[in-house]
Amino acid sequence: MDFNYSEEAEAFRRDFRQWLEANMPARAASERRPEFMLGDSSDWDFHLEWHKKMYAAGWVGVSWPREYGGRGATLEQQVVYAEELASCGAPSLVNGIGIGLVGPTLMQWGTEEQKQRYIPKILSADEIWCQGYSEPNAGSDVASLQTRAVEEGDDFIVNGQKVWTSGAHRADWCILLTRTDPDAPKHKGISYLLTDMRSPGITVRPLVQITGERGFNEVFFEDVRVPKRNLVGPKNQGWQVAVTTLMFERTGMAGRDLSGQVAELAALAKLLNRRDDSAWSDSYVRQTIGAFACEAAALRYSNLRQLTRRLKGLPPGPEGSTSKLATSELNLRITKFAMELLGAYAQLESNARFAPETGKWLYKMIAARALTIAGGTSEIQHNIVGERVLGLPKG
Q: Does 298 fall in a domain?
């Protein structure tokens, strides 16, 4: 395993770092949040403006092929790109579902007409996308979905409901899974439709999160017309297309470097007073944070091992299957320990009077649980690792 990046990757790092240093907004330090956790319209507008600035400079969708507007970045360059964004605390971009899921899926499955129509407006965020997969009775088991699409002339007529749809209240388009053959086995008879969220018959209702944000939504479809030209892949074989999208989703959620989060936790311990000294003076506190640092480092090296395999032309190893699970669970434990350190101050909300570090840790803690659910729950990930990686029998 090689711990050194190539000169090509380091040159890419220098160019990107130089651009970030010259263009970072002053507000950036506290604004690196997932898109579905963005608050009011002014908050969204700030991130959208940053996205447009990054796009104009060619720093959005760096992994995309040049023919589709990306930089054709190598795997090493993609890792460097993520490292630099994290290290400087850059604001998050918008249209993450469009860039991370929809665009790559259309590159693989879309018709030429679909590619030309939709892909250019994804990187620029001129059209925002959401993902219509989960339903009230089909969450982790997405293939059990019941939303129906019936053919009528040149259209599909869609009826049903989706839930936990991130960003649906701001989305222009939706990648929608529907059942087009109700008599087929559950992984068959599914079709993948590109659906205009402004279509008559679509109702979006926000679901208020414990953080106070309204990023998740229920979406209802009542006799919604979707043109047949918006079908991606063969009719009734949409599960194959959906799995492609899910693979991009799991890849995008894995591999987050938590060393910065651990460093912030150590800084918090040094800030808090305990018996005329800081919490950092307590050996239990130092040992706990040290253990978190070791786990974060182990995860980083595991992800580098995965990168090394890919660079050598080998297929992904078990590191990819465990990374999402381990990262989301470690993040949860870090934020829970922050609550233990804060004690009574842990109850103070963001920007409340007397809240240490403006109350950001309470927000982090109540937001952390979402990452153990999104992209496949921890329970599902345990099953995948146990059955497909370790070869254990089903329980």
A: yes
What does pLDDT average to over the chain?
A: 88
| Placement of tokens 């490292």 in the chain | 83
Neighbouring CB atoms inside 10 A of 45's CB total: 12
293 and 370, same domain (yes or no):
yes
How many C-beta atoms lie closer than 10 Å to residue 248's C-beta?
18
Q: 267 and 369 share a domain? A: yes
pLDDT in tens, 120-131: 999 999 999 999
Amino acid at 286: R
- What CATH number did the domain enclosing 289 receive? 1.20.140.10
- Residues recognised as catalytic: 249
d(CA 67, CA 71): 9
Buried b (16+ CB within 10 A) or exposed e, 156-191: bbbbbbbbbbbbbbbbbbbbbbbbbeeeeeeeebbb
Task: List Cβ neighbours of 373 (8 Å cut-off, separation of 6 or more).
Answer: none
Its pTM stands at 0.83
CB 255 within 8 A of CB 327: yes
Each residue's pLDDT tens digit, 66-80:
999 999 998 889 889
Q: How far is CA 50 from the centre of its chain?
A: 18
HSE of 126 in the Cβ direction (CA atoms, 13 Å)?
7
CA-wise closest residue to 232 among 193, 177, 189, 188: 193
Tokens representing residue 357 in the block: 């570090």
DSSP 8-state secondary structure symbol assigned to residue 366: H
